[in-house]
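pasting for ref
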Amino acid sequence: MKVKEGFLLRSFGDEYIVVAVGEGSEDFNKLITLNSVGGFIFKELSEDISRDELVKKIVDYYEIDRQLAERDCDSFIEKLKDAELLEGC
């Protein structure tokens, strides 16, 4: 799975903003604000990655247990799916 083309992530300190550009902005004219964990996950989703690979990266980067990483990852992925920002899932 990965983020659809046409969405850019911009950082402002510890916060991130996702904006649609090009043709994506015709269908999606909102801003999405993310915390640092959301920004990390969104960056990782810029390339095709499996859920398990993504969870492992979260565990390794934040040094948290797998169960917490899975819960946070799944919650974030569901929000991206609801907003129709993901492909390949």
